[in-house]
Structures are given as C-alpha cells and as structure tokens.
Amino acid sequence: MGFNKDESMERYQAVTLAISKRKGSDSVVVSDAVERKMQHLKGYVIPNNVEVTTTRNYGATAYTKVMLLIEHLIGGLLLPLYWLCRSLWAGVQVLWFSWLCR
C-alpha cells in the first residue's frame, strides 16, 4: 500500500470526526471540552480497544499564540516604564544634589 515496503495487506478501519467551534466562541475552551468529553466516553460509548487520536488541536496553538502575545505586551509595557522611572530618579537626584550644594 503506498510507498511502504511492508507487503502485509493489514488494513485498519478509521472514523474521522471533525469538530468546529461557533463564531465568537473560544477555541481553547471548545477543544478542552471536546477532549474531556472524549475521555468520559472512553470505555462507555467508545470501546477500550478503539484508539482515539487528536490530529489537530487549534485550541492549543491559539493558547500558545495568546500567551506569546501577552508576554510581548507585558515586556513592551515594563521596559518603557523602567526607563521612565530611571530617568525620573536621575532627575530627582540632580535636584536633590543641587539643593544640597546651595
């Protein structure tokens, strides 16, 4: 079958289930709920000898991208705040030193 050198003709049955979110819903929440539901159905509706595999989880990739964005936003806010505080402190030191030298 295909480019595989294995000459066995063993075939596997497969079912593909595609689940999509509704517009406006959070993909992370939807993907977590689907995974919890699949684990709940395992052994009850889905037999134990059936393998369940997640091929694509857009919720996980969306979560990673959101965390990276938040990390960059925090860095973008803290760095200018640091430089502002540092320059203000230098100004305070100059004023204090000039007051002492009067």
Helix-strand pattern: HH
- CA(first)-CA(last) distance: 93 Å
How many strand units?
A: 0
Radius of gyration: 29 Å
Indicate the percent of residues in helices: 55-70%
Label the overall shape.
Answer: rod-shaped
Overall mean pLDDT: 82
Low-confidence residue ranges = none
Structural class: mainly alpha
Major sheet details? none
β-sheet strand percentage: under 5%
Number of helices: 2
What number of domains? 1
Describe the protein.
The chain has 102 residues and is mostly helical. The mean pLDDT is 82. Helix content is 57%, strand content 0%. The protein has two helices and no strands. The radius of gyration is 29 Å and the shape is rod-shaped. The chain has one domain (27-100).
Task: Please write out the topology.
Blueprint: H1 27-41, H2 58-100
Helix pairs in contact: 1-2
Short note summarizing the structure:
With 102 residues, the chain is an all-alpha fold.
